[in-house]
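Quick one - inputs below.
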Amino acid sequence: MDTPLIEFKDVTKRFGPRTVLDRVNLQIYEGQVTTIIGLSGAGKSLLLKQIIGLIKPDEGAILFRGQPIAGMQKSEIAASFAQMSYMFQGNALFDSLTVYDNIALPLRETTHLQKAEIDRQVMARMEQTELTEAAHRYPSELSGGMQKRAALARALITDPQIVLFDEPTSGQDPVRKNAILSMIAQYQRKFNFTAILVSHEIPDVYFISNRILALYNGRIVFQGTPEELESFEHPFKDEVINSMEALQKELTGLYSKRQFKILNHAQLKRRAVGDSYCIVFFSLQELNTVITQVGHDATQEALRDLGLYINKHFDAIGGFSTRRNTNEFITMLPYANMNEAENIMNKFVQDFHGQVIRSIQVGACKLAGGESLELPILAGIAQGQSSSDIDSVIALAKLQQKVIGRLHCTAGE
Amino acid sequence: MVLTANSRQGSESDATKGPFALIRQPFAFLGRTVIGWVDNLGAATIFLYLALLEIFRHKQLSKTVQQIYYIGARSITIIMLVSLFTGMVLGLQSYHALVKFGAQGAVGSLVSLSLIMELGPVLTAIMITARAGSAIAAEIGIQRISEQIDALHTMRINPLRYLISPKIAAAVISFPLLTAVFDLIGIIGGYISGVLLLGLNAGVYLHSIQTYVELRDVTNGFIKVIVFAVIVSTVCCYQGYFAHMRKDSHGAQAVGLATTSAVVLSCVLILVSDYVVTSLLI
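Output:
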């Protein structure tokens, strides 16, 4: 593997008699979204503050592109930190400055750009983060979500190569949480920066993360992909992940991927050889276009409404569902064969057209302005046997997808 | 810059143990307190030095002008009010005291010299401490506990340059100007009570000022107030900036106590330094 962008080697940090980080070893790679998860007070924010140099470790070394920061010249350290930006958990916006001035602050104070150029860059960022109307308002006059967006805009204004996000979704409702995560993922793809997140949003944060680091009892107990975390066996999983997933189900109604697999295994044990089951795969297409047109909040609201409806409909007939990706949902119909599943789907589509599509449309379109927009919703069914691998059935269902409905958005709707 | 908080823990625990603990404890307490003062004095001096280095950097002028408006211009009303009544009381008291010796003609010089050499600088500094100094300490304290100062670090903006230097520069510019206003209005106050209310001759009042007040008196007054400006601005900024390192409190309470400490310490230091500077200037 490449040289890590940031590496911790046996980093220890104590506050008085309490050891918060105990010989922590971790690697963060360039161009990836890395998320640090762990319980409150575990030292996740402390890790970020050590990366950006706000707090120094008591022992161990932090390496930046393979070079120990402690051994660098002052100018080298400054150059390394100049590539980083930090979004604070509490936003840390200057409450005596307007949103515009907050976002413009790093450019005004650290560059020699002309006023017109600063204005152009700030307005562009504000437009991207849907803050144009709030330009001359003070942070205290904004909602929590808008404050987060302002903090995000300020963090991105200098085009940093590394952005550290300290609980960017704390205190937000489920729709806003997903909107912020989606925004981070979108900007990360667009500007190709390395994102390091501290988050509690399990499993939502998995959808945007390339790597997960699990901090438990002062140590990193897991480093790997979200998929690898599924098969990770450690007390951390019971104490942290499971409890957070349980909470998540309360909020969205959908099972996590791990819970989905557990339910599937439980069903598998009850099935006789030769029993069939069906997987229904749903997806909302052209997500990036939708986000650009109607914004992150409205898109997440539509996704949430769709997920809730899928869960409600299939739960009533013994099915169970999960969110597989930002815009993909899977439903398991445990004892249905293909014919039964198609009948169930036909009923679902009828109900969907009759009752649901309108309400989703209202949610999705309320921020729309200017042009018309059509948003296709796809679904596909595949049948599996008790002996077949569920992942291959899911892949087959994905291939079978066809349009079951379209959300129409027109300006002012 | 990092203040050491744990360096004295060892001596504290040693002092509370052993057969002579009761004898040791008062000395240990005294030692801790004195070392604490020296620690803070050293840290505040370094803080001031680092802030002074940033005063003449690029883009500081607009921030300094903004602070002059905040510390200086917005304090004019209260300064005028206080100086008017201070001058009136001085005129009243000195008239009744001097009339016993038939020396009421010296009211003008007494009022003006008292104001220019002593009351003007001291009362101006105390009034600005109460009005602007407390606000500076609270503002910086809140910026510290809400991570705004950390945010400046992460944006590669030196907080001493962005927050502290303009305030110190503005204080050094504003204090003498406000003292001049205080002196002038105070002399007018003395005129109102001495001449207009008690019937002293206006020409005598003004002639006595012209005769006895020298440029040196005015210069000394301004030297004093510049010293006060540096003390007040440094103490208030320092207390707010390190509010998060207070051992007696945390969070909002720490900001409250930092503000109180800033005002009390500034007032005490104004009076102490007043004596020291006066003794050097006389």
